[in-house]
Amino acid sequence: PFPPLLSVSPAADPAVISPQDPTLLIGSSLVATCTVSPDFPLKAEDLYWTLNGRRLPAASYAALGPSTLSVALARLNGSRQQSGDNLVCHSRDGGILAGSCLYVGLPPEKPVNITCWSKNMKDLTCKWAPGTEGETFLHTNYTLKYKRRWYGQDNTCQEYHTAGTYSCHIPKDLALFTPYEIWVEASNRLGVAVSDVVMLDILDVVTTDPPSDVHVSRVGDLEDQLSVRWSSPPALKDFLFQAKYQIQYRVEDSSEWKVVDDVGNQTSCRLAGLRPGTVYFVQVRCNPFSIYGSKKAGIWSDWSNPTAASTPRSERVAGGCDPKGGEQNTTLRRELKQFFGWVKKHAYGCSNLGIKLYDQWRVWLQKSHKTRNQV
Amino acid sequence: GDSWGIFTFLCAALCNLPALPALNCSEELGAGQSIQQTYDLTRYLEHQLRTLAGTYLNYLGPPFNEPDFNPPRLARAERVPSATVDLDLWRGLTDNARLAANYRAYSRLLCYLRVLDGQVGTAELRHRLAHFCASLQGLVLSIGGVMSSLGYPLPAGPAAPPARPPRAPAAPNDFLKKMDDFWLLKELQTWLWRSAKDFNRLKKKVPPAVVTLRLEARGF
After folding, report:
1. What's the CA dihedral at A258, A261, A264, A266 to 10 degrees?
2. pLDDT in tens, A33-90
3. What CATH number should be reported for the domain holding residue B69?
4. Same domain, yes or no, for A72 and A149?
5. Same domain, A52 and A97
6. Which residues form the domain of B86?
7. For FRET with B204, which of A177, A346, B10, B72 sits at 20 to 30 Å CA-CA?
8. Across residues A157-161, what is the average pLDDT?
9. Mind telling me how many Å the CA of A39 is from chain B's nearest CA?
10. Are residues A200 and A213 in the same domain?
11. Which GO molecular function annotations are given, in alphabetical order (chain A) (predicted)?
12. Residue A138, in any domain of the structure
């Protein structure tokens, strides 16, 4: 049932590799040595090397002493894994005597494309892209730093990966009406690279929550219109700003959104030119521009969750529409209307008699006619 | 599948909260269910570990991720509690000793895994490790719950593993650290495999009716 107790090696390390865990530039060469500890009865000729599990050719070996074997590695490629290439010194039977992790790569490139936004002027989130190469083969650490211009003290962002891998979130202690300098430092074992400095005022990069309470409803019986209403984002209600809104809508089974751009400052809008009897999905977003008179554009919020509504479809009687009959109906109706008008003036009682009652009777007639046809 | 395992884990964690007085009334039944849940948790963790170990060993690179890799276990690396034990010794363990060994082992293993979490390179690995540590924490709680319901005291030491592991000498170089990580994962595998047998054995001490019902329900 249980595997045999594993044999435990003696306390001293069987061999020592030099250099131990070196960092190297791509394309460089390396000579490594493996020296067996005096407690071990092994000679140089009893040893061999592997790199990432593959045996290295004996032609690259050289015995530098009775118990020291070297290996020459030329024009090294970037490390196969970020934890380092595994260079291992073995005894003849395959046992591992010692190992060294080789970190072969490139120094980092300047991070680029720093963009930031502030949610309701309370915080700041920035994202960036690594330099053009991207692949340095080494683990690269990114640090976002910021300081108020003319105030001298550097601050370091702490919360990373909030909006993707290359992002950081500054949750508090941000001042308004003052320019900030923001930059990103990339560092790995081979060096450091600093991005260009971005200067911004929090008020210039404000975004907000999507509009709340988005309601989409029909406009009476109109088949080609829907009315959209929403509330302005509550988080900014105490601030002086103008809001721009945008609406996008699409038919239920299509992926093409139509955008209504010129909504301006209102919190309602009517969509027209729609298809009757169709389900539409509608979303609204907000751009809080000109906060405290800032000249900059502001940043669009996310779209609100889609709201669905359908346009009405008028009923058509299966029995068919007789145009002639329709004409006759119009004349009859007109006459009836006149009659009822006269009745109202000159007769007392029967006040419920009116054209409306006649219309209701017509509707009832259509419905019962339809049911009779269906039966 | 995965969601069933998570459900079991949550049940185990919740059922073993000491604040619930109702459990005291039917201790035998409570213990039986807890043992079954702990068993299920070890199987779930075993499954989770396979994916985690695969990803982690690929991160360490060959030869660590080769199937027949078996490096020497250096004496300095004895910090990780070993699951392997003499068969007769194992058979003769009292319930208390059996549970205590499991409890101690996973508490220590959890500590070491958490240290690993702080050092590891890629975001994907950190995410997987964090998830696994949470599940392992659940297992420790579950074992503690079984011990409490059977009236055994929890092994001495902090109930929750301390933030810093007991100071074993840190690996003197990166390659030896990779070997330590390899052995940590190996011991974890062996422990989960052994725990399944431990809890199977403990299940037999529980009234058969309860166990039979459960087996039938699971279609065995």
Report:
1. 0
2. 999 999 888 999 999 999 999 999 999 999 999 999 999 999 999 999 999 999 999 9
3. 1.20.1250.10
4. no
5. yes
6. 30-162+178-205
7. B10
8. 93
9. 15
10. no
11. cytokine receptor activity
12. yes
State whether A99 and B59 contact (CB < 8 Å).
no
Reported as a single tens digit per residue, the pLDDT across A215-255 is 999 988 888 889 999 998 888 777 767 788 999 999 988 88
**In the predicted model, is pLDDT for residue B26 greater than 70?**
no
Give ipTM to 2 decimals: 0.74
A334 domain residue, yes or no: no
CB-based contacts of A27, cutoff 8 Å, min separation 6 = A75, A76
Instruction: Write the residue in B61, B78, B87 that is nearest to A85 by C-beta.
Output: B61
Tens of pLDDT along A260-307?
Answer: 987 878 889 998 888 888 899 999 999 887 777 666 778 899 999 999
Please, which residues 17-56 of chain B have a Cβ atom closer than 8 Å to chain A? none
DSSP H helix total and E strand total for chain B: 8, 1
Tokens of B174: 């990166």
Tell me, yes or no, whether B9 lies in a domain: no
Quick check: B137 pLDDT over 60?
A: yes
Burial of A315 per CB tally in 10 Å (0-12, 13-18, 19+): exposed
Q: Is the peptide bond before B63 cis (omega within 30 degrees of 0)?
A: yes
Note if the bond before B67 is cis, omega within 30 degrees: no
Residue among A166, A184, A177 nearest A200 (CA): A177
pLDDT of B11 higher than 70: no
Domain end marker among A289, A311, A333 = A311
Residue B219 lies in a domain: no
Same-domain pairing of A231 and A197: no
pLDDT of A325 higher than 50? no
Report the domain count for chain B.
1
Q: Are residues A53 and A79 in the same domain?
A: yes
Are both A92 and A178 inside the same structural domain? no
Of the residues A172, A204, A236, which one is the last residue of a structural domain?
A: A204
Q: Is A50 on the interface with B (CB under 8 A)?
A: yes
Percent of chain A surpassing pLDDT 90: 50
Beta-carbon count within 10 A of A199 CB: 11
Estimate to the nearest angstrom the gap between the alpha carbon of A206 and the chain centroid. Answer: 18
Range of the domain at A148: 112-204
Q: Is residue A286 part of a domain?
A: yes
Chain A CB contacts of B71 under 8 Å are: 96
Same domain, A287 and A250: yes
Q: What's residue A56's pLDDT?
A: 97
Q: Which residues of A touch B185 (CB under 8 A)?
A: none
Residue in chain B closest to A80 (alpha carbons) equals B61
Query: Which residues from chain A sit within 8 angstroms of residue B178, using beta carbons?
Result: 83, 86, 99, 101
Q: Of A70, A68, A97, A99, which is closest to residue A85 (Cα–Cα)?
A: A99
In eight-state DSSP terms, residue A204 is: G
Q: Are residues A200 and A121 in the same domain?
A: yes
pLDDT for the residue numbered A330: 64
User: How far off is chain A from B62, nearest CA to CA, in Å?
Assistant: 5
CATH of the domain at A124: 2.60.40.10
**Mean of the pLDDT values across residues B185-205?**
91
Into how many domains does chain A fold? Answer: 3
